[in-house]
């Protein structure tokens, strides 16, 4: 496996025209480029990080986990739980000057809910049967049944309010010419290189302290770190553990370690042999030493998983882990008819998650010890998502490393899209093509049950079954290691894995 150097960014490191202190554009070196700037179509965090500067949601999830008003100033839920009435914030305009009204909110929500648009995250708001304008600044969301996670789901970046009129006019072009109400407006996008945003001076809230934000796509760890060290970037995400001490020793850089709601895993394609057999999937789990990966590959920056979602999420319960036991792995492989192991392909991104390709290489070595020969395949991020998102009949990816951030703080978002039968790709996000009617029933019931304790019990049962079925190689939950120039103030490194410059300034 060979990775090409990113020539443009290497040249940026080599020749910096101006020191960062003289610039008022915040430069963020991300690991991968955005896939789309249409929030309704975005399913990945690099895209969400950018769109969260351009667009806003009806409610917001604070870094402390509190849901607060966004574009909805207030709300009222009917006694039967079937109608959510929202008061739209006054004085808000889109970047083209169009005022935000209840009509615009309805148009945006209708676009998101339209099944013909086939947005992957439709499940977030699917129980909404109708959006009704009550008056210019009041809108009702009418449901077919009580929906416990609704307010939390309305904090999700993919439910952001877009200028639906512009989206209809531009069609597919809206993904590269977005118009929202956020503190920054879109300027330009050079794919796999840079996205430029400028401060929106007509913003309704507190204006950002920087003139703009530039997001650079920099897959190589060493290049990202060189950029923040040399002054080519203010911020570099996913600091390799071996670089933490060196960067932290520099007077002009702080390395931030921030918890996240992201779980890292390798899913198994249940339509491709030998992963159709639960014993093989369990064997892979026994063959991999998660604690060694945590200690030696990530430098202790992760927590080995004991459930399919991370601690701190509503509905999380530890249901156990697969202890490292290569002998048990060999026994299970023999029982499944693979006494000598087998060959397969392990897909992995590079630069998207903390030490992702290094983790894949460690797993490759561990699997070889039990007779599983896994060739590593990596692709550019958008191509990687496309390859793993193919329908069952044309999907050739047997196993792949991915992550999922439960950014609403509710287990519904962490489990329903990844394990419910209705969410098989490409319609949803269940890339494993996992299907268990008992899990489906538990997740369906948890969505419409309003009693918190009852919901926790349902998720506990679902997590236990998922653990035993082993649709994934369960790996770990991430922390975020982000290097930031000390001249930057007010930057938010959000647990939802977004670097937010809404209140940022540069001294």
Itemize the secondary structure elements and their pairings.
Blueprint: H1 7-14, E1 25-30, H2 45-54, E2 59-61, E3 67-69, E4 72-77, E5 83-88, H3 102-113, E6 128-135, E7 138-143, H4 150-153, H5 164-170, E8 184-190, E9 194-199, E10 212-217, H6 221-230, E11 235-236, H7 244-248, E12 253-268, H8 278-287, H9 290-297, E13 302-304, H10 326-335, E14 342-347, H11 356-368, E15 372-377, H12 381-388, E16 399-405, H13 411-419, H14 437-448, H15 452-469, E17 472-485, E18 488-489, E19 492-494, E20 498-500, E21 505-506
Parallel strand pairs: 1-10, 1-11, 14-15, 14-16
Antiparallel strand pairs: 2-3, 4-5, 5-7, 6-7, 8-9, 9-10, 11-17, 12-16, 12-17, 13-17, 18-21, 19-20
Helix pairs in contact: 1-6, 8-10, 13-14, 14-15
Q: What can you see in these coordinates?
A:
With 507 residues, this protein is of the alpha+beta class. It has three domains: 7-55 and 182-234 and 487-506, D-Maltodextrin-Binding Protein, domain 2 (3-Layer(aba) Sandwich), CATH 3.40.190; 59-164, Dipeptide-binding Protein, Domain 1 (Dipeptide-binding Protein, domain 1), CATH 3.90.76; 260-479, Dipeptide-binding Protein, domain 3 (Roll), CATH 3.10.105.10. Helix content is 28%, strand content 24%. The protein contains 15 helices and 21 strands. It has helices spanning 7-14, 45-54, 102-113, 150-153, 164-170, 221-230, 244-248, 278-287, 290-297, 326-335, 356-368, 381-388, 411-419, 437-448, 452-469, and strands at residues 25-30, 59-61, 67-69, 72-77, 83-88, 128-135, 138-143, 184-190, 194-199, 212-217, 235-236, 253-268, 302-304, 342-347, 372-377, 399-405, 472-485, 488-489, 492-494, 498-500, 505-506. The longest helix has 18 residues, at 452-469. It is globular.
């Amino acid at each position: 496996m060979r990775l090409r150097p990113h020539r443009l960014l290497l040249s940026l490191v080599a020749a910096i025209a101006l020191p960062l202190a003289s610039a008022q554009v915040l430069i963020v070196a991300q690991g991968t480029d955005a896939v789309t700037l249409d929030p309704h179509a975005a399913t990945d965090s690099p895209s969400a990080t950018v769109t969260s500067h351009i667009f806003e949601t009806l409610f917001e999830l604070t870094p402390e986990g509190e849901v607060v008003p966004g574009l909805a100033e207030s709300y009222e839920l009917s006694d039967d739980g079937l109608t959510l009435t929202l008061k739209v914030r006054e004085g808000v305009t889109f970047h083209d000057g169009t005022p935000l009204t209840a009509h615009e909110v309805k148009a945006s929500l209708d676009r998101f809910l339209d099944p013909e648009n086939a947005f992957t995250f439709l499940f977030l708001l699917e129980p909404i049967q109708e959006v009704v304008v009550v008056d210019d600044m009041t809108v009702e969301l009418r449901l077919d049944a009580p929906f416990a996670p609704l307010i939390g789901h309305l904090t999700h970046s993919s439910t952001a309010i877009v200028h639906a009129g512009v989206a209809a006019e531009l069609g597919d072009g809206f993904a590269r010419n977005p118009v929202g109400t956020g503190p920054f407006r879109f300027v330009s996008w050079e794919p796999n290189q840079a996205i430029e945003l400028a401060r929106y001076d007509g913003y309704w809230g507190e204006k950002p302290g920087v003139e703009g934000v530039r997001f650079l796509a920099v897959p190589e760890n060493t290049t990202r770190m060189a950029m923040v060290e040399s002054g080519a970037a203010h911020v570099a995400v996913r600091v390799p553990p071996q670089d933490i001490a060196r960067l932290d020793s520099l007077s002009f850089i702080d390395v931030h370690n921030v918890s996240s709601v992201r779980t890292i895993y390798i899913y198994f394609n249940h339509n491709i042999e030998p992963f159709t057999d639960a014993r093989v999937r369990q064997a892979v789990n026994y063959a991999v030493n998660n604690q060694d990966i945590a200690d030696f590959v990530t430098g202790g920056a992760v927590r080995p998983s004991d459930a399919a979602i991370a601690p701190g999420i509503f509905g999380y319960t530890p249901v156990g882990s697969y202890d490292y036991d290569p002998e048990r792995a060999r026994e299970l492989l023999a029982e499944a008819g693979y006494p000598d192991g087998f060959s397969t392909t392990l897909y992995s991104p590079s630069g998207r998650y903390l030490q992702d390709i290094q983790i894949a290489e460690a797993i490759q070595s561990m699997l070889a010890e039990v007779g599983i020969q896994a060739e590593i395949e990596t692709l550019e991020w958008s191509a990687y998502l496309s390859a793993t998102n193919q329908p069952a009949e044309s999907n050739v990816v047997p196993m792949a490393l991915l992550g999922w951030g439960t950014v609403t703080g509710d287990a519904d978002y962490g489990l329903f899209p990844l394990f419910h039968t209705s969410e098989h790709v490409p319609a949803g996000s269940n890339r494993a093509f996992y299907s268990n009617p008992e899990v489906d029933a538990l997740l369906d019931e948890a969505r419409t049950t309003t009693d918190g304790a009852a919901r926790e019990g349902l998720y506990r049962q679902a997590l236990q079954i998922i653990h035993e079925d082993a649709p994934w190689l369960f790996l770990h939950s991430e922390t975020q290691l982000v290097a930031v120039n000390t001249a930057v103030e007010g930057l938010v490194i959000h647990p939802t894995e977004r670097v937010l410059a809404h209140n940022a300034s540069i001294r």
